What we know:
With about 190 residues, the protein is mainly alpha-helical. The chain contains seven helices and no strands. The protein has one domain (about 10-185). The radius of gyration is 19 Å and the shape is elongated.
Amino acid sequence: MSHEEFTPEESLALITEVIQEAKVRLEEDGLIYMMWGILLFVASTGQYLLFRMEQWEINYYPYFLIPLGAIASQLYYARKQRRQSNQIMGTISVIWAIIGFNLMLLGFFGWPLLKSSLLPISLILLGIGVATVGQVSKSRVFLLAGILINITGFVGFQLDWTNQPLLLGISSLLFIFGPGLVLQLQKR
């Protein structure tokens, strides 16, 4: 096994190349962010509408779409990873897997404890994930979107719990679907 020494300039060039490669690959992932933005918008808006129709006992049913989204994401990334992989994209995948798992646990099992804090906490976790993607991939669009999602999470604590799903829906469209769309447009 040979060990090759790099000059500082060569090391910096290699690091820059890896980061640029990750950015290009992230642009390909704009579709998955668009899917999740729409999925969260549909689920949370569905819950909001059920609240308005006073369907209290079934208000959470729209969120059963989330596991389907998780399966679709898993299939998408499994196929994608066979073709291309690097350390940065692996890190982003692990971060989203952990955040997604925690969001599902909170949503399906933590709601009795959290009650009206569930959606604001979920928004804060989403904001952390999106901002992390932005920082790791050097995408200002995602970094800003993550910060804005985080802020909306704190705004959510001030809203009546029956209006919080609407905040999640609007945030999902603007700050998850929106950056995904921007990446898709940049790709073209």
